[in-house]
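Backbone-to-sequence.
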C-alpha cells in the first residue's frame, strides 16, 4: 500500500482540501474531552501552511444523519484548532442549500490560511457517497489530502468519492502525515513484524473479532484472548460460565481454536453477582465460575501470565479491553496489560494499540505516552488488521 503523500507533490500556492478526523468526544456542554484526533492532524496542517497552501479542512462529527444539527456543529472544534495552531480558523456556515458551506469556503480560501467546512454528515450525500456531493467538494481542491485514518474504512463522499472526483479532474489525491503514520505502524507490524509478534484481543463480542482472529492468527507467534470474549471460549471448553457474556453463534468457531497452541486464554477471572462497580467481587479459576455470577475482568494470575509473554515480545498489537474497564473495580486486568505494553516499549518492543476502547483505556489509565503508537481509528484499525482494503486509502494516488 504505497500511496503518494503530501511530500510527493507540489502544494505551494495551491488550494488543498484535507479530510481530517475531528470526530472528537464532547461533554454535554459541547466541550471537547479528548483532543488527540485534532492534535494528530496538526503536522499535516502546519506543513501545508508552511508550504504556502490555502488549507480547507473537512470532517464529520457524530451522527447528524444528513440534517443540519447545531449540536454537531464543528464550531467548538474550529475554536480549539485555532488555539492549537495559533492562527484563525474560519468555520463556514451551513445553509439548507449548501449544508457544508462549500461556496463560502471557496470565497474565503486564501494562502496560508485555514478554512473549516461544516460537518460533512450535515449533507445527506456524505454517507451515501453521492457523486454530486463528491463533485461539488472536488471543485474546492487543486489537491486532495486524506488524513482521516479513523474514517478511511468508510466509502463516503468526503473520503472515497471526492478522491476519485479530484483524480478525474487530473489533480492529485494523496495521504497526509497521520494517515501515513497509521498505515506504516499497522501495516509494518502485520507485513514485517520483528518477532516474537504478540496480538492481544479483548472486548465484548467474539463475533466482531472473528475476522481479525482469522487474519492475525497465521501471522502472530501468540494470540492472547481476554475480556468478555474469553467466556465463549470457556463455554466451548465445557466450563460453567455463569452469567458471563456468551456469544452462542461463535461457539463452534471457538471450539476449533481451543487446541491451537498459539492461543492463550486467561487462567483466572474476577466475578461478581451483578454488573456493577460495587458488586462484591471475587477471583476464581476459570473452571470454577459460580452459576449465579458473571466474569467482569481477568484475574491477577492471568495478568502475570500475559505480562510474561508481552515482555518477551518485540511487536505487540492490542485491541479490546480485558474487562469492564469503565468500572474501576474491574479495570485492573486492562491496566495490567497496559502496564505490560508500557514495559515492553521500555524494553525496545514496538507496541501498538488499535484504537477504540483499549486506546481510551490506555489514556484513562495514564499509559498513553509509553505506547509506541496509539491508533486514532477504532473501526478503521480493526478492518485494517482484518486485512480488508480501506476505501479511503485505496482511492489515493499510488507512488
Ligand atoms: P468491544 O467494542 O467489542 O471492543 O468491547 C468493548 C466493551 O467490552 C467495553 O465496553 C467493556 O466494558 C466490555 N467488556 C470487556 N470485558 C467484559 C466482560 N467480561 N463482561 C462484559 N463486558 C465486557
Amino acid at each position: 500500500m504505497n500511496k503518494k503523500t503530501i511530500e510527493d507533490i507540489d502544494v505551494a500556492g495551491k488550494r488543498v482540501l484535507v479530510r481530517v478526523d475531528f470526530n472528537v468526544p464532547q461533554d454535554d456542554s459541547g466541550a471537547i474531552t479528548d483532543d488527540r484526533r485534532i492534535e494528530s492532524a496538526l503536522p499535516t496542517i502546519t506543513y501545508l501552511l508552511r508550504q504556502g497552501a490555502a488549507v480547507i479542512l473537512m470532517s464529520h462529527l457524530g451522527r447528524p444523519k444528513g440534517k443540519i444539527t447545531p449540536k454537531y456543529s464543528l464550531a467548538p472544534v474550529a475554536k480549539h484548532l485555532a488555539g492549537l495552531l495559533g492562527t484563525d480558523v474560519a468555520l463556514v456556515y451551513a445553509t439548507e442549500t449548501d449544508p457544508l458551506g462549500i461556496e463560502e469556503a471557496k470565497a474565503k480560501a486564501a494562502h496560508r490560511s485555514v478554512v473549516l467546512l461544516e460537518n460533512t454528515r450535515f449533507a445527506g450525500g456524505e454517507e451515501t457517497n453521492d457523486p454530486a456531493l463528491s463533485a461539488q467538494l472536488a471543485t474546492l481542491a487543486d489537491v486532495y489530502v486524506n488524513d482521516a485514518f479513523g474514517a478511511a474504512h468508510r466509502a463516503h463522499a468526503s473520503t472515497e468519492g471526492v478522491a476519485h472526483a479530484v483524480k478525474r479532474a487530473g489533480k492529485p489525491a494523496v495521504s497526509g502525515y497521520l494517515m501515513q503514520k497509521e498505515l506504516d505502524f499497522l501495516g509494518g507490524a502485520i507485513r514485517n513484524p520483528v518477532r516474537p509478534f504478540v496480538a492481544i484481543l479483548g472486548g465484548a463480542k467474539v463475533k466482531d473479532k472473528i475476522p481479525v482472529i482469522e487474519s492475525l492468527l497465521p501471522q502472530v507467534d501468540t494470540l492472547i484472548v481476554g475480556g468478555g470474549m474469553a467466556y465463549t471460549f470457556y463455554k466451548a471448553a465445557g466450563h460453567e460460565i455463569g452469567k458471563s457474556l456468551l456469544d452462542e453463534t461463535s461457539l463452534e468457531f471457538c471450539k476449533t481454536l481451543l487446541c491451537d497452541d498459539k492461543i492463550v486464554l486467561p487462567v483466572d477471572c474476577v466475578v461478581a453477582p451483578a454488573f456493577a462497580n460495587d458488586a462484591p467481587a471475587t477471583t476464581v479459576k476459570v473452571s470454577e465460575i459460580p452459576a449465579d455470577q458473571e466474569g467482569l475482568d481477568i484475574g491477577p494470575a492471568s495478568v502475570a501470565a500475559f505480562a510474561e509473554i508481552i515482555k518477551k515480545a518485540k511487536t505487540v498489537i492490542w485491541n479490546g479491553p480485558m474487562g469492564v474497564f469503565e468500572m474501576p473495580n474491574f479495570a485492573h486486568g486492562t491496566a495490567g496489560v497496559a502496564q505490560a505494553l508500557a514495559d515492553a516499549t521500555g524494553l525496545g518492543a514496538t507496541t501498538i494499540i488499535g484504537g477504540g476502547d483499549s486506546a481510551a483505556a490506555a489514556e484513562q489509565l495514564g499509559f498513553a505516552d509509553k505506547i509506541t503508537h496509539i491508533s486514532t481509528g477504532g473501526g478503521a484499525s480493526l478492518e485494517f488488521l482484518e486485512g480488508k482494503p480501506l476505501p479511503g486509502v485505496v482511492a489515493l494516488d499510488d507512488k
